[in-house]
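Structure first, sequence second, as always.
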């Protein structure tokens, strides 16, 4: 990866009319409806953007949208990229570097995750307070990483404390249950075994998913304040484990989405 490649993509998007976005948003599985609240000025398919990966997951739409939301200039990634699609960690996080190049000053991330903490229920939301990277690599592990920032990026507070406090206050004001917890990122695409769920609980995970952590690491590398919220779509009880139902997971994410939209819109407004 080179700065020139990122600049090529940034300049292309600027020429398309994406200028001075303040906030970047990455939308995860079943969480595409926020775009209905965006006053869209520019809409571009990932496949039309130079150097951009293309989402291969059927429930990720693969569009970059720019416009106004709650009075702020916002750029939304509708659909993201995953290790399980065959992309490298550098490819997965390339869009975060592009968004920073376009000028965003904070990044909001959403995902769908399984609840390891059995006090958390299907359809609840969880604010990420910390994470465990079980994806077997780092998006910063490439030769010229110091061209982009400090190689040994500090991760003592990967999620912005100020943004997290604001989000918790917004949830309380709107009577939305918002747990705070630790997210474990695995490769996928297979779901976890009973033994793996037990292991995740032992090491301190409250939820498990297949995304988000690479983007958060790169945001920290770029000194970009980042916040992330999981919709908990299933309860991962190893003593009562049922076969996974992907349509049901998508449906639960869809049902929880209005709560996520309130949180994101109010945070953007503030």
């Amino acid at each position: 990866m080179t700065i020139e490649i990122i600049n090529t993509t940034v300049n292309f998007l600027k020429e398309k009319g994406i200028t001075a976005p303040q906030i970047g948003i990455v939308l995860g599985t079943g969480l595409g409806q926020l775009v209905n609240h965006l006053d869209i000025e520019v809409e571009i398919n990932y496949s039309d953007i130079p150097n951009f990966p293309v989402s291969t997951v059927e429930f990720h739409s693969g569009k970059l949208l720019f416009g106004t939301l709650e009075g702020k200039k916002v750029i939304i990634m509708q659909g993201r990229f995953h290790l399980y699609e065959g992309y490298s960690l550098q490819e997965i996080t390339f869009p975060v570097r592009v968004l920073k190049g376009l000028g965003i000053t904070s990044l909001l991330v959403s995902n769908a995750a399984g609840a390891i903490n059995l006090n958390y229920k299907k359809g609840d939301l969880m604010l990420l307070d910390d994470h465990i990277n079980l994806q077997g690599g780092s998006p910063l592990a490439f030769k010229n990483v110091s061209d982009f920032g400090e190689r040994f990026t500090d991760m003592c507070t990967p999620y912005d404390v100020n943004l997290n406090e604001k989000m918790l206050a917004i949830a309380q004001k709107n009577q939305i249950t918002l747990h705070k917890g630790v997210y474990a990122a695995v490769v996928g695409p297979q779901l976890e075994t009973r033994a793996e769920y037990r292991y995740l609980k032992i090491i301190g995970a409250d939820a498990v998913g297949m995304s988000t952590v690479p983007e958060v690491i790169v945001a920290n590398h770029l000194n970009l304040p980042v916040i992330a919220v999981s919709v908990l779509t299933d309860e991962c009880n190893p003593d009562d484990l049922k076969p996974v139902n992907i349509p049901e997971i998508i449906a639960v994410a869809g049902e929880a989405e209005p709560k996520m939209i309130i949180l994101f819109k109010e945070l953007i407004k503030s």
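Margin note: Strands lie at 23-27, 39-45, 63-69, 72-78, 106-115, 125-133, 178-185, 207-209, 226-235.
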